[in-house]
Amino acid sequence: MCGLMMRLKWCAWVALYCSCISFANSRLSDDTKQILSSFMLSISAIVMSYLQNPQPMTPPWAAAVN
Q1: Run of H or E including 64
Q2: Fewest C-beta in 10 Å: which of 30, 42, 52, 57?
C-alpha cells in the first residue's frame, strides 16, 4: 500500500518480492484469493509508479549520499 499510495518504486518492488515469498511458502489449503490480491496490488503499485515517473529507479540511500 505504501508503494501504491506514495509512488515509491523501491517499496513497490519489495512488495512484489514479499508476494513471491508468500506464494512460495503458502500451502494448498491457504486462501488463493488473498495471494492473488497481494500479487495484483504489488503489480499495480509498480505499474502506477512507473506510469507517473518512467525514469529508472534510484536507491533510497542515493539521496543521502548526494
Answers
A1: helix 62-65
A2: 52
Contact status, residue 40 vs residue 1, Cβ threshold 8 Å: no
**Model pTM greater than 0.85?**
no
Q: State the cell numbers at 52.
A: 507517473
Grade residue 64 by pLDDT with cuts at 50, 70 and 90. Answer: low
CA angle, residues 54, 38, 59, in degrees to nearest 5: 35
Q: Angle at CA 13, nearest 5°, toward 31 and 1?
A: 60
C-alpha cell, 56:
529508472
